[in-house]
Amino acid sequence: MDHSRTIIHIDLDCFYAQVETLKNPELKTLPLGVQQQNLVVTSNYLAREFGVKKCMSVTEAKKLCPNIVLVKGEDLHDYRQVSYKVTSLLQKYSHLVERLGLDENFIDASNLVNERLKKVTPTSVPGHVFGNTTNLCDCGCGDRLKIGTQIAQEMRDEIKKGIEFNVLCGNCP
Ligand SMILES: [Mg+2]
Ligand SMILES: [Zn+2]
């Protein structure tokens, strides 16, 4: 099997709910659901604690979580805008970025990983690594995986920093 490439998958968490919270930070401390027609299409973790699930009917969500705050999510404009901003931040790391839906990106970070491996031998691994990175096989993929997790952490930090301020451009109609 060929282990030569390092692909990073970034999947944004409860994306629509996070965008709504960026627009209105007061929502951060409230159980929040994003409503499209009669469905709660996503919700934040406070709402999930009450058992609210993806694509649950509004009636059922309100039964489980009577204080849920529902915002309308039918207009995708702001979600698209944040989504493309995230992709453009990720394109700084590699020009090989593939989008999936509005909240997922696959980044081929192979070149960057190989460049870094010329300079450093990775030791620490941020986040969680499944399995054992030292004895995967002898092709060097364990080290590439470690560097990949470091880059993934940098990406998370970059997204957090880059999206915190100026997410929604004031110039859009
Ligand atoms: Mg997601
Ligand atoms: Zn390998």
Automatic annotation (TrEMBL):
* Gene Ontology terms, MF aspect: DNA-directed DNA polymerase activity
Q: Where is the UmuC domain?
A: 7-173
List, in alphabetical order, the GO biological process terms annotated in this UniProt record: DNA repair; translesion synthesis
Any one Pfam family here would be IMS
Q: Which domain of life is it from?
A: Eukaryota
InterPro entries attached to this UniProt entry: DNA/RNA_pol_sf, Rev_trsase/Diguanyl_cyclase, UmuC
Q: What is this protein called?
A: UmuC domain-containing protein
The organism's lineage?
A: Eukaryota, Metazoa, Ecdysozoa, Arthropoda, Hexapoda
